[in-house]
Amino acid sequence: MSILFRFLYYGIFIRLVVLFFLGLNVRQRQRLPMQGPAILVSNHNSHLDTMVLMTLITRHGIPLPKPVAAADYFLRNPLMRWFSTKVVGILPIKRKKDHAKEDLLQPVYEALEQSEILIFFPEGSRGEPEKLAELKGGIAKLAEKYPQVPIVPIWMYGLGKSLPRGEALLVPFFCDVFVGESLFWQGERKVLIEQIRHSLSTLEQQAGRLHDEDLW
Amino acid sequence: MDLDFKLDVAPNVLMALAGVFTILLLASVIVAVLKARNPQKDYNELVLRVRSWWVMASIFSLAMIITRDLTLIFLGLVSFLALKEYLSIIPTRRADRRVLFWAYIAIPIQYYWIHEQWYGMFIIFVPVYLFLFIPFRMILIGETKNFLHAVGTIHWGVMTMVFSISHVAYLLALPDNKNPAAGGAGLVLFLIFLTQFNDVAQYTWGKMLGKHKIVPKVSPNKTWQGFLGGVITTTILAVLLAPVLTPMDLKLAITAGLIISIGGFIGDVTVSAVKRDIGVKDSGSMLPGHGGILDRIDSLTYTAPLFFHFIYYFYY
Fold it and tell me: Which residues of A touch B99 (CB under 8 A)?
């Protein structure tokens, strides 16, 4: 049953929205990992971000990646729980510890050990359109524990125009997707965060050169 | 012969479509031969381009054969995709999100007038009503910085991608009895086939004989030899096709050939100038080997209204 909804959601609805209403221009598509384990890290401006990332890596029309998302929001009632976990296919994590020793990233470790592809938004919540906010540290902790897992930076431009934070009206614009080279653990958390930040802002500049006169 | 179902198009149109696919088949064979002869050369771009032609021609032919309304929807989608490409590459303002939404809404409205065969509304909706409405909608938002630039670019986009392209569709709304040979569908095929053929012909002549640049600042690859070669071959083809697909006699067929080949060239370089201004090479990546949809219909944005009003003046 859930499989049917999952197919209708991704095979028809998301495809229609992402590939027809919006449309993607993907640069360096060959840099995307075709199998797990891998972590995609990207900027976050719009509810559309996850939808676009999910269409990038698919098998038989069903996306392989799992977006890592806040359990308190996405599992807040039974219907949301069913939709988020069975249809969308998120990997829920808690934002607050129940006891001091709890490791909130435990579900992520398990997923990576099962060779899943995960989607991370290291900026946390959706920020200003097409701007990179400060990055959070969880990703570095993961890289340290799993140094062989590639981290793939992805910059998306246009979704913050199509559906920015606080707007309900979707206005179609093509989305430019820039895929960066895979990054690996180099022995220090700060170094990794800096590498990700540097890679994302390089991709951001590439996107910015195409849209340098936009007033958004 | 008795047919159980009635097709929406005249036999001449089917014949012409068969001709189009024969040409595509020929193109595929030529590419295959080239590849076999020079295995070390990279023909990937050419292969992709021919493949995209197959896809475009197949979808378009299917729509044409099934019903008139499907062709209208198909052309409406072309307008949508082209407008979206244009609005995605031009500089826009955040304040205009809702204005741009109205620019998109204009597409179904414009094609609805065509479906209703309401010529008076079709011909003034975009140039008059939308032209007056867009700045008004902007004023309701109130952002004045770059106001004129935004009004100008949005209106140029809607005129080109919606108004111009919808002229192709209105050919289908014209009464069939004025063109007994092939009806409105014949005119559409004549216009689109010659426009696309002219693009290929100008490119091919330019590659073979090109020497003297024609608009070096806008499009450095365009030459006088390519342009004139295209004009001559397209006009000859127009004379050959006119009796099959249109009501035109020799004199009008020659004029139509000149309008399509010269107009097509101007449309092509106009869109090139826009892309050069913005600083992009291709308008998108929807059509592998061609670029974006705007790269494919650039010539049509000129030939469609020019050919439409030419034939409309003389026959309708």
Answer: none
- Output the pTM of the full model: 0.91
Question: What is the distance in angstroms between the Cα of A13 and the nearest Cα belonging to chain B?
Answer: 18
Enumerate residues 138 to 157 of chain B having a beta carbon within 8 A of any beta carbon in chain A.
145-146
Residue A173 to residue B88, Cβ atoms within 8 A: yes
Residue A18 belongs to domain spanning: 2-215
CATH number of residue A144's parent domain: 3.40.1130.10
3 state SS of A19? helix
Nearest CA in chain B to A216: B94
How many structural domains compose chain A?
Answer: 1
- ipTM summary value: 0.86
Single-letter residue type at B45: E
Q: Please measure the distance between the N-terminal and C-terminal CA atoms of chain B and give it in whole angstroms.
A: 32
pLDDT (tens digit per residue) in A31-56: 999 888 999 999 988 889 999 999 99
User: Do B91 and A214 make contact, defined as CB atoms within 8 angstroms?
Assistant: yes
| Whole-angstrom distance, CA of residue B230 vs CA of residue B202 | 4
